[in-house]
Each structure stands twice: as C-alpha cells, then as structure tokens.
DNA sequence: GCTGTGGTTGGGAACGTTCTCACAAGTCGC
DNA sequence: GCGACTTGTGAGAACGTTCCCAACCACAGC
C-alpha cells in the first residue's frame, strides 16, 4: 500500500517501464509489438504490465498514429428494424477488422445530422457511414472527404457528393411490385409512403409512377398518400384510401412501418386481404410470415447493405483512392398471400 | 494556394492563433469558452477559425480533461428489437447531455464481452452500460469501477458486482403471467425459453415455477423447453410440446423471439389460438397487435430501461458516489386475444 | 586491430489540446 | 499616488503514447 503514486488513475507505459527497469520507448515497443525487442525484455515488460494491470490509452495512441480505429454510423433511428439490421451488418464487418462503431440517430433531421457529423469528426473517426437525411448537397458531407475522412452513403445517395454509396435499385423494385399487381388485374393501386420524401421514397414513388405508365394507367393523385411517419397515421391513410368512392384494390407501401399501418388499416376497414385489397410491403421483417395472410414484400438485403458499406469504408481506409463507386444490391420480390387477383367488380 | 503548410491535415488551434495574431493559449480560451478573453479578441479568433475551417480535436482535449464524453454500450445484439429500443433510450438521454455512444454487440458471448469491455476502456469511455452475458462474477466488470469508470447494468444484474442496475421484476412478471393462465383453468402450461439461461430467463423460469407451485400444480419437465436461440428452434419445440400425449394447453415464452416461434409453432401444429392453446409472450413488439389473435404479453418499458440506465450513468459521471442502486421498473400485463379458457377436455 | 553490420536500447521530440503560472495594464479605494 | 485587486494575455508544462535517431554491443571480415 506504500508505493501508490496516483490513487485511482491507470498506470501508464512509463510506470510499466519503471517496474521492468527499461525505458518507456522499449516498454512501448514490447507492448505494442513493433520495433525490435529482445525476448527477455519482452517477457519482463509483459510481466510488469500484467502485474500493474496496465491498459493502453488509445487516445494518446491515436494522437500519434492519426487513426482511432473507430467509424461513425449515422442512421435515422436505430429502433427502426431496417437501421438496426444495417447497423448490425456494419458492426460485424467493422469489428472483425478491429474497428468500433460510434452510433448516432439523426431522426431524419438535417440539423441533427449536421451536428452529428461535426461531433464525429471532432472525435476523429477514421471514416463515416451515413444514411443521409436530406438529398440536397449537404456541405457538411462534402467537407469530410476533403479533409481526408472517407464517407460511405448507406441506402441513399446524395447527387452532388463525391462518395461511395451502397444502395438498392428502388425504382426498379417498385416498378416490379406494381407490375406484379397490374398482372393480377389491379388498376386502382395506392401508394402509401411518408411525408418529407427521403431519397429512397422518391425513387420508390418514381418506380410506382413508371409501373403505372407502363400499364397505361392514369395517375390518380387521391391514391398517393404521404402519411406522417407513424403507424397510426399510416392506418388512417389506409382506411381513407379504402373509403373512396372508387377505392384502391391494392396498396403498395414504401417501408416496414407503412406496411404495418397498411395491414392494420385493412383490418380496421374490414377489408379482406387479398380478396378485397392486395398489399405489397417493403422490407421483409419477421412478422410478415406470421400474419394472415402473410405479406407479399420487396425484400432488401438489409444486413448486407450495412456490411457492404463497412467493407467499402475499410477499403478506403486501407488506401483505395479510386473514384467513388456506387454498389447496387439486388432486391427480391417475395410473393405471399397478401396479393391476389383484383376484385371483379373493380376491374375492366 | 501558396500558404498551405500541411496538405490535408486539419488546421490546429495554433494555426488559428497565428492567423488571429494571438497565442495558442488565448485562441484556445476564445474557442473553448473558458478563462477570460476580451470581446475583440474573441471575435478575431472566431473569424480566423471560421475562415480556416478549424475543428477542435477531441482526442487532444480528452487527454487533458480526462473525459471523452463517450459512453460504451454493450448489448447482445442490436438487431434484436429489445436491445434496439433500449439502445435508443440510452442514446437519447446520452445525446441530450452531450455524450455519444460507442456500441458493441456481444452475442451473449462472455469472451467477446470481455474483449469489448477492454477495448472500450482503452478508448477511455467515461462510463459503460452493459447487458452482461454471463451471471458469474465477471472480473472484467469489477475491474472498471475500481479504476474509476462507472458501470450500469442493463436488464440483468450480476450478483457479485458493485454497480448500479436497471431491471424489471422478472420473477414477479412471470408469476403473474402464470397466474393469469391458471385463472383461466390451465394446468398444462409450457415454458418456452432459450438455451444458456441468461439471468433474465433464469428469473422468468423461477417465476414460472412459483406460479405453478402457488396453484398447486406439479412441474412436468417435459413442458419446460429450452430452445436454441432461433425462431426455427422455437417453432420446433412448440410443435413438439403440443404433440405430447398430454399436450400443453398454454405456452409462456420468455422473450420476443420465442414468442414469434410459439405463435408460428401453434399455426404449424394446426392448433387454434386460444381455443386449443393459449399463448403469453414476453415483450410487446409492433406485430403483437396485428396477428390474429393478438398476443397477450408481459410488456417491458424497454426504451425507459435504456433511458434510466443512461440517466443513472450520467449521475455517476456528475459525481454521485453513493452506494450502488438497483432500479426496478414496472412491467405491464396486457391481456389480448391469445389467451382464453383452457379446453374442457384437458382440465380437471 | 580496425571497420562494418545487425540487433537492442534509451533520449527526446511530436501529436493538439488544456492548464498553471507569471506578468502587464488597468481600476479602485484611500 | 501607492498598494491591492481585476482582467487580459503569453510562455511553457502536461496528458500518454509513438516515432526518429543516436548510441551501444557483439561479432564477423579483412
């Protein structure tokens, strides 16, 4: 109890060096595994470190090396299963490569996002994976690559920015979904999306419109619903679109929360699925197979989306300085029981 | 283009000071908002910082101040909605107080957890919130508080450790759920939980046993199922427990994944819920109200669990050094359509 | 015996901040 | 008009590590 110099601060590499009877430089080499150290000294230092309970200070290390082995991840809301899955994909790949993940929720708010990016940069993350909230050229996003911090865009692209991106072909996926419904004879197809059109939803809307056009169906604006981003609002819009004089016979939703709302809305409106109304959801969550009928969906490789983003970022950190690449992953259209032939009285 | 000294490294406070014609100490005071600086100098420094695009280096700052404004969060799996919600609760409270969250998945693996705790400590997080995988006295957990890094246990307690904990009364919740089923006349009540009993599940098992004992029901070990932690395994165990000569008339599950499996298992076994088998789930997720029948559940205040953990940790960081406290939050028992009277032929 | 070589080791600078201290220039009270 | 206090400023140490470089040693080659 007599040799305590600092009461409750961690021992430093200097303390270890002193205990082992070597210089700090040598102790650092022994513990850091770089440079040349004789086996005898290495063991002596290791023993001293063990005995003192030495833990390296990454902060000091990062100051010198210029790398923190930390990547920033900015998503809208980790509570949303889509982002949770993507985050898991990111974390797994990052962790395997010795990186940790600093997580921030932006709630789709550009101001929050901007502040988050700034904070993450001040913490000197080695790179950033971000699902950008706004599609306008965020100066805060362009700034980092210029300073040498690579960015990978997750799920959404920002036109003006020079950065890698991992996305799916939302336009094509949506067009395909509409094609499926058209093939079943539907002509009154509603779109249920959320207000404040984020990039992916814009693309899905575009795909919806293209799908209609390909089928020669005129757009009915009353069938395009942009709900507040809550389950209850989605339910209301669904009930409303099913209560039209000429109601929708099919509903295409643009994400998992809207799918949930559409499903519940059909239940609440007392419409049989798929006899009276077909539903196509976006994202394949666990529940889609235990509801009755099970949900037809556009499934995204969500986990892989995150994993690919992390791999891309790691490649940049490893020195890849080629031109920005956009990687487009494939979606899968899974037909289940929630889509069926359009009701007879509503077609032709 | 002529005055660039470092090509693509961020300007330092020294660069700002030089540009503003003051010392680094003064520039630091002006930008850091501490000490005394004259308004004129403050403006001059701010202008120089703005013009150079100065961003403070938190690493260097943390070295001096000894605080990183970062907290570590170790959960089993961020993809699990339970942890995603808790993480959101943590992140919101932390963010409001100016803290960021470093997230690690442990996959319930003690070795991974141990390594994570070590890494987080090396990165000098100010504190740690952890849902510990193992209930044995983790030396890696005891270590940190001794070094002055506070820990808050989330959702699970570790008996030997001196740390705050935020939990729910799992024993009582489980006992109550069993009581509900007993009250409906059930005497063949199965328990569906997962292998490698984590702390919460041990408590829920204990509550289950107590519930049976209170009702004077003898334990039938064939009704206690510990599935591999996958949906498919949960389905199999459910089908199996419903295929007994004297099958279960009710199933109580110990978490949301097991609930999903039980629900699907009943479907696959062709048993009507609740006419032939009642189901009580643990955790109230979005899907529980859109399946038919909707699920009776023990609902936990998951988000609040995380938020409370963060508040507790912040209190510690603010200097609270009272004895460790365990905060027990209330669960809610929500009766929906998945529980009903026991089938006549199976009772008394 | 002198020089060269390769493996070890230590001294000290560097990273970018904050903090402590000393000092200069006012300001106030008497 | 002099000490005590306040306010603003700068010099330099400190945080704990890594990196650069010089020095040392042993040994081989000539």
Largest interface: A-B, 55 and 55 residues
Level-2 CATH architecture of the largest domain in chain A: 3-Layer(aba) Sandwich
Residue runs with pLDDT of under 50 for 5 or more positions of chain A: 1-7
Report the C-alpha radius of gyration of chain A, rounded. Answer: 27 Å
Q: In the CATH scheme, what's the topology name of the largest domain in chain A?
A: Rossmann fold
The CATH homology group name of the largest domain in chain A: Response regulator
Number of strands of chain A: 12
Q: Which structural class matches the secondary elements of chain A?
A: alpha/beta
Give a brief description.
The structure is a homodimer of 348-residue chains. By secondary structure, chain A is α/β, with parallel strands linked by helices. In chain A, 43% of the residues lie in helices and 16% in strands.
Structure description:
The structure is a homodimer of 348-residue chains. By secondary structure, chain A is of the alpha/beta class. Chain A folds into three domains: 13-56, 434 Repressor (Amino-terminal Domain) (Orthogonal Bundle), CATH 1.10.260.40; 67-168 and 302-329, Rossmann fold, CATH 3.40.50.2300; 170-300 and 333-346, Response regulator (Rossmann fold, 3-Layer(aba) Sandwich), CATH 3.40.50. Helix content of chain A is 43%, strand content 16%. The first copy, chain A, has twelve helices and twelve strands. The first copy, chain A, has helices at 13-20, 24-32, 39-52, 58-65, 81-96, 110-122, 139-147, 170-183, 199-214, 231-242, 256-268, 302-317, and strands at residues 70-75, 100-105, 127-130, 151-154, 164-168, 189-194, 224-227, 250-253, 278-282, 296-299, 326-329, 332-334. In chain A, the strands form two sheets. A six-stranded parallel sheet of chain A has the order 2-1-3-4-5-11, sandwiched between helices. Chain A has a six-stranded mixed sheet with strand order 7-6-8-9-10-12, with helices on both faces. In chain A, β1 (70-75), α5 (81-96) and β2 form a beta-alpha-beta unit. In chain A, α1 packs across α2 (24-32) and α1 packs across α3 (39-52). The N and C termini of chain A lie far apart (91 Å). Mean pLDDT of chain A is 93; it is low at 1-7. β2 of chain A pairs antiparallel with β2 of chain B, so a sheet runs across the interface. Chain A binds a DNA duplex (30 and 30 nucleotides) through residues 12-14, 22-26, 28-29, 32, 34-38, 41, 56-66.
């Amino acid at each position: 109890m007599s040799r305590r110099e600092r009461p409750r601060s961690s021992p430093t590499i200097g303390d270890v060096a002193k205990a082992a009877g070597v210089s700090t430089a040598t102790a650092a080499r022994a513990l850091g595994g770089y440079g040349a150290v004789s086996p005898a000294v290495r063991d002596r230092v290791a023993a001293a470190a063990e005995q003192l309970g030495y833990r390296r200070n990454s902060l000091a290390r990062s100051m010198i090396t210029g790398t923190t082995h930390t990547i920033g991840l900015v998503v809208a809301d980790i509570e949303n299963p889509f982002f949770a899955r993507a985050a898991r994909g990111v974390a797994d790949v990052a962790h395997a490569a010795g990186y940790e993940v600093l997580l921030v929720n932006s709630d789709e708010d550009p101001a929050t996002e901007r502040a988050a990016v700034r904070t993450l940069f001040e913490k000197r993350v080695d790179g950033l994976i971000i699902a950008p909230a706004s599609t306008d050229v965020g100066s805060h996003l362009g700034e980092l690559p210029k300073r040498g911090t690579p960015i990978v865009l997750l799920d959404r692209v920002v036109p003006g920015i020079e950065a890698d991106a991992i996305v799916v072909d939302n336009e094509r996926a949506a067009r395909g979904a509409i094609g499926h419904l058209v093939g079943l004879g539907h002509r009154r197809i509603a779109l249920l999306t959320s207000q404040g059109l984020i990039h992916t939803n814009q693309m899905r809307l575009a795909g919806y419109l293209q799908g209609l056009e390909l089928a020669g169906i005129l757009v009915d604006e009353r069938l395009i619903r942009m709900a507040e981003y809550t389950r209850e609002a989605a339910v209301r819009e669904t009930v409303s679109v099913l209560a039209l004089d000429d109601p929708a016979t099919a509903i295409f939703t643009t994400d998992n929360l809207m799918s949930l709302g559409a499903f519940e809305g059909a239940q609440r409106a007392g419409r049989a699925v798929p006899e009276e109304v077909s539903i196509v959801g976006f994202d394949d969550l666990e529940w889609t197979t235990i509801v009755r009928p099970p949900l037809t969906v556009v499934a995204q490789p969500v986990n892989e989306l995150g994993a690919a983003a992390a791999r891309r970022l790691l490649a940049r950190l490893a020195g890849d300085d080629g031109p920005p690449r956009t990687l487009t992953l494939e979606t899968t259209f899974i037909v289940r029981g929630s889509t069926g032939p359009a009701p007879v009285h509503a077609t032709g």
